[in-house]
Amino acid sequence: MTNATARRICFDRILPKDLFKPRSANLMRLPNGRVRAISPVRKQWVNGSTLRIRFLSGTDQQQRLVRDIAPEWTHHANLNFEFTNDPRAEIRVTFDPSDGAWSYLGTDNSDIPLHAATLNLGWQDEGVILHEFGHMIGLAHEHQNPAGGLQWNEEVVIKDLSGPPNFWDVQTIRHNVLDKYTADQVNGTEFDPDSIMLYAFPDEWTKNPGGTHENTQLSDLDKAFIRSAQMYPGRQAPAIEAVELPVQQGTFGTISKPGEEDLYKFEVRRAGRYIIETSGGSDIFMTLFGPNSLTQKLAEDDDSGAGSNPQIVAVLQPGQYYARVRHYSPTATGEYEIRVIALGS
Length: 345
Description:
The protein is an alpha/beta fold. The chain has helices at residues 3-7, 60-69, 126-136, 154-162, 170-178, 220-226, and strands at 11-13, 27-29, 35-37, 50-55, 80-83, 91-94, 101-104, 119-121, 151-152, 206-208, 243-244, 250-255, 261-268, 272-279, 284-289, 297-301, 311-316, 319-327, 334-344. It starts with a helix and ends with a strand.
């Protein structure tokens, strides 16, 4: 294995709260019984969002390369990229050659302080830019797909990545290469050797099916998956519409098909403490965005309410807020009631 090969493996950034969660596969079973993996659950941005991207460093040439290449994802995913100097930008890009290539996953970017980078490009070419921006919109490494592919020669992998230029410890190597994600991205129903989310690995790293080749462009399955119902469908769709949710009143909703998400908006006219919650027999997961933003994640919750319902208690300032709800299981459907309750100051 050459140093060049080792250098082109990105470091998968995850939040501290997720660091010690076991990586058991969360899979979707198709009607024909075949297994299909999905991108990590609860990491997707709201479909139709505009993501603001700010450069914290880099030369004009480096920045221009990103502007030219990264928007390839938006030709297929129902997202928009806006390059800006706005200090509130959701995505902050650096070009530190001593820090490799990495990105936080999807909405995890919203949990990073505004002064800090969320994506680093220690080297720049078409493949690495598309790969890291794939992480940014919520995709995981294809080589950690639980539904297929690589059988690792673990001793060789650990030996090579323990040395230069990575100098990773065993825990880092297992996290980035050997272990499976909780919910991996798989393009279609089987391992995709052409995915932009797959790195090139030498033959001696694997027992079967052997080494992988370098991918520099989005594969056909990358494009199909990113515009599927599980990710960002409707590239030419009209602006996303949210259902009005009056404060102090409940509204009934239904997740009528697998992977569906419902979006609600409510107006806070007076600053104070609010409860946003669901009720019913469905296992609902909820994310709160705002104020006046579909990409600024404020909180998320699974089971803090009654039964398997979410409950978010937050101090909110005046403005418009959005609550996105989906079933915890990507294969399940069900009914629920959602409400916003003002508790006062």
